[in-house]
Amino acid sequence: MPHLLHLDASARPGLAGKDEHGSHSRHLTHRFVRQWLAGRAKDRVTYRDIGQNPPPFISHDWIAAAFTPDERRTPWMKDALAESDTLVDELIAADVLVIGTPLYNFGMPAALKAWVDQIVRLGRTVGIDETRHPDPYVPMLGDRPRHVVILTARGGIGFGSGGDMAHMNHLEPNLVTALNFIGITRIHQIAIEGQETGGEVLAASVKQAQREVDELVAELQDTLTDTPIAMA
């Protein structure tokens, strides 16, 4: 059975259309997972709300531990990496990673960046081959097909690929680069725009995004029936 890892990074805990000041990105991720389970009720879902419970930032102890070979790590080093190990384990187990995130000040929320920093790990998600020049990095999560669904919400308009404001959007490009770096290259992106404009502009964007989510669920479910998935 495919395994979904569902992440929400918005600082807003509620859902748009249901709660006051609710999150549009959360609304999309919850719709995606709900639609997925409607067709495949036995599939597993791991949920992590990093918007409300962000991972810790990288510290000196974390760096010292992460760059020490496993056989030489002391107990305090293992403690420093404990949460990172959990997050990496969740990612490795996933066949579909669903990320809901707003665009904050042209980039990703600090909570999502903290998650990225925790899962890009030497020896866990990326290796090094010093014989390879000029790029010695070896992605470790390309061992099987993994899909990432990035569901975003933006206050402005035109931040998507080819849009007038695309050059100011450092959310999806940053996230895609980090995921590609560790070997996850099957990326799907859907966005809501116009939160600050509101009215018919926002309503039309929401409707379009919802339709794209439903279509993507059907597409991925068809795809995953014919590809290897994580072992339980």
Describe this structure in words.
By secondary structure, this protein is α/β, with parallel strands linked by helices. Helices cover 38% and strands 17% of the residues. The strands form 2 sheets. The chain has a 5-stranded parallel beta sheet, with helices on both faces. β1, α1 (24-39) and β2 (44-49) form a beta-alpha-beta unit. The model has no long low-confidence stretch (mean pLDDT 94).
What topology does this entry show?
Elements: E1 3-8, H1 24-39, E2 44-49, H2 60-66, H3 75-80, H4 82-93, E3 96-102, H5 110-119, E4 126-128, E5 137-139, E6 147-153, H6 172-181, E7 186-192, H7 199-224
Parallel strand pairs: 1-2, 1-3, 3-6, 6-7
Antiparallel strand pairs: 4-5
Helix pairs in contact: 1-7
The amount of helix comes to 25-40%
Give a quick account of the main beta sheet: strands, pairing sense, barrel closure: 5 strands, parallel
Radius of gyration equals 18 Å
Dominant shape: globular
Q: Mean pLDDT score, rounded?
A: 94
How many E strands?
7
Range of strand content: 15-25%
Strand order, main sheet: write it out.
2-1-3-6-7
- Tell me the series of helices and strands, N- to C-terminal: EHEHHHEHEEEHEH
First CA to last CA: what distance?
8 Å
How many helical elements?
Answer: 7
Structural class comes to alpha/beta
The stretches of 5 or more residues where confidence is low (pLDDT under 50) are none
